[in-house]
Amino acid sequence: MILGIGFSDPMLVGLIAVAVLMVLVVLGVRIVYAAAAVGLLGLVELLGWGPAAGIVGTIPHAKSSNYALSVLPMFVFIGYMAYHAGLTDRLFDAARKWIGWIPGGLAVATVFATAGFAAVSGASTATAAVFARVAIPQMLRHGYDRRLAAGVVAAGGTLATLIPPSAIIVIYAIIVEESVGRLLLAGFLPGIVSALIYALIIMGWAMLRPGQAPSVGGFSWRERLQSLPGISPIFLVVAIILTAVYGGWATPTEAGALGAAVVFAVAVARGTSRRAVQRSLMESAKLTAMIFSMIWGVLIFVRFLGFSGLPEAFTGWIVGLDMPPLVVMILILLAYAVLGMFMDAIGMLLLTLPVVYPAVIALGFDSIWFGIIVVKMAEVCLITPPIGLNCFVVNGVRPEIPLSDVFRGILLFFIADVVTIAVLIAFPGIVTWLPNLMSG
C-alpha cells in the first residue's frame, strides 16, 4: 500500500514483480540491480518500509557469513593462479603432444585441456579467455577453420561449470540447502561425459571435413613423457579436492584452501613474479565480489517471492498437471533454455530455483540429479545467442574472429550438449553414483 499500488493479493504482486524483472533483464539492466530494486519495492508493497528495510539490510551480512560461500574465493584463486603460473600452457602442450595425431587432434586436445583447467578453475569465462589466448593461435596456425577453433574454446570453457571445483554448483547447493561436497562429486562424471561427447563430435566432423581440422603429428614418446611433469600440479590439486571431499577428512572449503596452497607453492617454485601473484589475487577478489553482489541482490528478490507465496502456488500447479513427471521436467528444461538466452547462468539459477526447485522435488526427482541437470543447462546458456557470454569472451580476446563466426562455431557443441543432457536423463546413475558412494 505504501507505493500506492493497492493490490490485496500478494501473489498478484509477485507475478507483476516477476514480469517487471524480466522486462528489466531484457532491456539490459544488470541482474543484481534489477533483482534488488524489484525485490525491495515488492517487500515494501507487501510489508511496508520498516520491515522491508530490515529484511534487506540483514541479507548481505547473513548470506556472506555463510560458511559454504567461503569455498568460492578459494576455487577462483586456484584458477587464476594456475594460469599466471603457466600451468595452462603446459596443459595444452601436453594434450597436443599426446592426442594431436587423431582427426581434429588440436580441437580435441583443447577440449581435454579445458577440462583439465576446469578441474582447477571453476570459472567458465576465465577458462574460455585463457584458451582463446593459448589454443586458438595454434589451431589457426595449423589450418583449422576459425569457426571451429573459436567454437571449441567457447564450448570447452563451459566444462568449468560441471567439473569440480565449480562455482555454479556451489551456488546451487547454497540456494537449495544441499551438501556442497556431494554436489561437487556429482559433477565429476557428467563433466567427463560432456568432454568425451565433445571429442567424439569433433572427430566425426574432422573425418568428414579433414581440411578444416587437420591432425598434427611428429611427436616422439620421449617428448610426450617429458610433458607430463609440467602438468602434475593440476592432477595433484584434483586429487586433493576429490579425495578430501569424498573421504570426508576436509570440507570443500578446506579442500579448496589446500588446492590453492599447492598451486601457490608451485607458482613460487617456478619463479612466478610478484606482479603475477598480485594480479591473481586482484582478479580473484573482483570475481568473488561480483558473485557475492549478485547473490545479495537476487536473494532480496527471492525473499520477496517467499512473502508473495508464488513458489508454493507454482509447486501446486506443477504437481497438479496431468502429465508424466518426465514430460514436465523436459518442459522445465526448455524454459531454462529460453530464459538462458537473456540471462547469465548464475542470475538465472538464483532467480528460478526458489520457485522451480520445490516443484521438482514434489514431482519425485532427486535434488542432486536435478542440480547437475540444471547446471548443465546453464552451460548451454553460456554459448547460445544472444547472450552467450563465453562467445563474447572469445570474441573479446580474439577480435579478428567475428562474433558471428563464434556463434556459428558452437552449433556442433550445442548438439553435443543436447546429447549429453539426454544421456544424463536416461542414465541418472552417472550423476548419483559418486555422491551415493560418499553417503554410503
In short:
The protein is mainly alpha-helical. It has 23 helices and no strands.
Number of helices: 23
Arithmetic mean pLDDT? 83
Rg (C-alpha, Å): 22 Å
User: Structural class given helices, strands, pairing?
Assistant: mainly alpha
Shape, please? globular
- Percentage of β-strand residues: under 5%
Largest sheet: none
Q: What's the N-to-C terminus distance?
A: 52 Å
What's the helix-strand series? HHHHHHHHHHHHHHHHHHHHHHH
Low-confidence stretches: 1-6
**Helicity range of the residues?**
over 70%
Number of strands: 0
Describe the fold and architecture.
It is a single chain. The protein has 440 residues and is mainly α. The protein has a domain at 67-272 and 375-439. It is 77% helix and 0% strand. It is built from 23 helices and no strands. The protein starts with 9 loop residues before the first helix and ends with a helix. Residues 1-6 have low confidence and may be disordered.
Defining traits:
440 residues; mainly alpha; globular
List the helices and strands and how they pair.
Elements: H1 10-26, H2 31-47, H3 49-64, H4 71-84, H5 87-99, H6 105-121, H7 124-141, H8 146-157, H9 167-176, H10 180-186, H11 188-208, H12 221-226, H13 232-247, H14 252-269, H15 274-308, H16 310-319, H17 325-339, H18 345-362, H19 367-381, H20 389-397, H21 403-409, H22 411-426, H23 429-439
